[in-house]
Batch of 3 targets.
Target 1
Amino acid sequence: MLFCSIWLGFFAYKHVAYSHELWWHFSFRGEASRFLRAAVGSGILLLLYALTRLLKPAAANPDLPDAVALEQAAQVLCAKGNAVANLAFLGDKSLLFSPEKDGFIMYGVEKKSWVSMGDPVAEPALARDLAWQFREMVEEHGGQTIFYEVGPELLHLYLDMGLALFKFGETARVDLAGFSMEGNRRGNMRTTLRKMEKEGCSFEVVAPDVVAELLPQLKEVSDSWLATKNVREKGFSLGCFDTNYLRHFPVALVRQGDGIVAFVNLWPGSGKQEIAIDLMRYRPDSPNGIMDYLFTELILWAKAQGYDYFDLGMAPLSGLENRPFAPLWHKVGAFIYNQGEHFYNFEGLRSYKAKFDPLWEPRYIACPGGLSFPQVLLNIAALTSGGMKGIIGR
């Protein structure tokens, strides 16, 4: 375009004799002089733009993990992984391993945002070096370092890295040692268990090696649930119905007669410190209270297996204070939490999990602060929803 405009300029003003004075001639009708100055100015701007594009960091194109990388991640998870780290098997996040392959960070890239899903999966001493390794890699590509849904244990590390902290919500963890079905508070749960048993429902947990033969039935349950809820599969921070992904985990089932009416896959942590739920699906025509029955039986099963905590998952925007001196993000988040029921059942989700008397632990986003935070949230939403189209559609 610049070449064509210069050619047209020389063609239009070929009748004007060139002289050095043309560069400094200013008048309302001095088109030839204006053309010369504009051509040089446009050429300089184009050159600067080209140099900027040439010298900026290379575009990010991290590879997704192959079978070897997933096997290495599985070894780390068996030794020191928390329950959420099982998201590595989803395969939609790249993996950054420590030099000795005894720790990793799982991350995704959306525009300039490099988002680590959770804290580094490693021992605390190694997690510090791994986080800095991730930060240095992001800086080489000119990106923004972000740690998403991190717990309180490593907040000092993210502050040392120059990142700002924003509370994103709370996760519900049931202390299994203190959980009991006795007392008036558990009356509704006992009633639900008896009701489901009378309707012919039964509960069981199947091992990962048995899941493969059940996948066709599980897919029918999942498809009917998606169609009824009119939603699409998510990713990044949540599991989705993927046969290769589900083969890695035990699955809790509710059967009614010969058919499966509800299921949830489980994320076991190392050393039986915790176990968490991921994909929750049930048939639309299943008995009322089926998920209460499933969760109650799951908690009792996890306690019998010797786990310390049962993680019910996140309650987004929960625990944000809308007070006069609270940070602006807390006020905005609390407003969305209270008024955004049309888009997401924030209060209902927290109330449902609260019936199991969990311990509420905060979760944070560590990222660059200031005016970049809204863009960070948008990029995270794109990662979890499968792109910008997934943010707009359900």
Target 2
Amino acid sequence: MDTDVLVVGGGLSGLALADRLAQQGTDFLLVDTQDRLGGRIATLEVDGAAFDLGPTWFWPGQPRLAAQAERFGIPVFEQYAAGDLMYQDQTGAVQRGRGYASMAGSYRLAGGVGALIDALAGTLDSARVMTHTALVSVQTQPGALTATLTQSGAPRTVTARQIVLAVPPRVVADTVRFEPALTDEQLQALAAVPTWMAGQAKVVAVYDAPHWRDAGLSGDAMSHRGPLVEIHDASPMAGGPFALFGFVGVPADARAAHREELLQLTRAQLVALFGPELGEPRELVLQDWATRPDIATPLDRTTVRQHPRYGLPTPLSALATQGIHFGSTETAHDFGGFLEGALEAAEAVAAQLARAAHARA
């Protein structure tokens, strides 16, 4: 099979790039290892309401996300932050009205970020999209690249002029073989790029009523006891069901070994913070991204404590001359790691591909 551009990774960056290529009339093939598109973006659906299990927010000053929402008619609303906050110290003691709403002023998409994934996917010809498909190796040849794939375990070969790796650099280092091999400097550069939030886990608790709002609480909470260390209102733009979500402060290995105990402790914590009504959620879902080898590597199981300085490392940029490009959010210079960064990366790679096509013409 031949194509001009092989896009590896069907998350937001890969989909946004494929959308641009489709608009330009460029021949492309988009592949992803999962059985769905979206990558680190996933939603829990309950009675027509969508709750983000991955990234949730964007902010003023991030124009690409806002433009895509406007383009597809996806309503934007502010993160709910009205009411008192809750604080829990290391002993489990709870105080009301201490702290600040850390996500106040941030924006969310109606229907969750998955609504944007669905909208972008809807612009593509399904014949150009392959799920259950993993990239195994890339062989560089004069004038072309040969990619070896496995689709549902069966081998396939694709020849392309350009290959865009819209997956985390560390995942590339762990899963893709290059012929000729990458230099030690390039391999080290791949491994040195942390995958933002890949070591994180998130719990979503869904309820028929917003009990915390009824009690004059915002749904925001900070805890030094856990298992949830930071909690926010995750309810939809209008109507119900309603929800809270929290980031889990338990290390990845302990989460994997004590999953059910962690959920039981989460129920108890929600009751302690917000009242007895929260002891029986309709749904209580733990999304542990650290368990996904297509997203998190062993290096990512250690939580990143502050936002890294992202951008494409210089040793990797040289591969563009061979037709190999990197396009995950971690390669974005200005908004690396964020949803906006995924769109920024897609924009930058699209410009690189256009320049390469112009040079060949």
Target 3
Amino acid sequence: MTAPRRLPAVFLALLLAWAVLSLGVQGRWAWAIFQIGVFAMGAWRLLVTRPLVLRAPLVPLAAAALWPLLQLALGTTVYRGGTWVAALDWGTFLVVFVLAQDLIRDTPERHGFLQAAALFGMCVAILATIGEFACPGKILCLFDSGLSGEVMGPFVNRNQYCAWIELLLPMSLYLAATHSRRRALFATASVVMFGSVVASASRAGTALAAAEIVAVAVALAVRHGVARRRLALGAAQFVVLAAIGVSVVGWQGVWGRWRNVGPEVLRKDALKASLQMIEAKPWSGSGLGTWSRIYPRYASVDRGLFVNQAHNDWVQWAAEGGLPFFLFLFFFAALSWKPAIQSIYGLGMVVFLLHALVDYPMQQRPGLAAWFFCVAGVAGACRQGWDPKP
């Protein structure tokens, strides 16, 4: 693959790196830079004569991106400003998905992206783990966030950090199992990323990341591309390294949170209120980007706190977009499920969507959602279902 063909994929990767590193920035200007870059790439791609790759999951995702515009046209949203912002965000996600499928569809480009993403994830995980112990509450150990126990690197929410690592961990594990020359490097990256999840003390993140490791191992075992004996030896080595890594970062934080699970009153009330919102407007929804504005109408408890999300993306999508929007994303997930599992390195998007059942990785931080749609596009572009060895 020639350098000019690789440059657009490199530029997309740099934009995604910017989206993560700027997550702690207040205001939308950092995200706006990402959007400008993505839309500029989309406009450039339309001018290129190379045939554009379009696959089945694009249809429900395009419908989801058009839905907030329909809500605005029909006047069904309770807050037009929030829905306009959501429409721009979903348009961005659509373009990211198309660009990922199109620009990273060839094997050399795909392996280059996987390696870059895994190494970038390792670097961020190192910074996040160091920051957790050396400078808690500071974004990248540089900027004060005003928080104490939530900051992990550029992320100001440990659960969202873990959701991002869940996207990257299968890539690193896949490369550790299949890359002949840099196996030790990617095994180390996997251990570092998993250790950072444990250090974050996120209950859902730790459980899902551990399950993800098992799922990747099983998926590799049933494939013919990796020798069983080598895989067993690699798994044993990984377990030893992971045990050492967890002992270094400490498991007491996450274990303490497991033992002291509270009643989660606000989460339960947010879920109950969301179901009432769906019942009130099942087909049109309240308008994308409006959940926090209408939640007080349905809340049954008042703790004096601002509840910004439903802590369940799927329920929030149904509340804001109605059942049609929920179904668009359900069919997108259903069509993306098979290529994600077949590719193995795309398993992270499956786990990410499972995480969305108990938290809100797709809300509040659009840069994180952009990563999800990029990974979905990369996994979906693998036509063989199993990449040749790098």
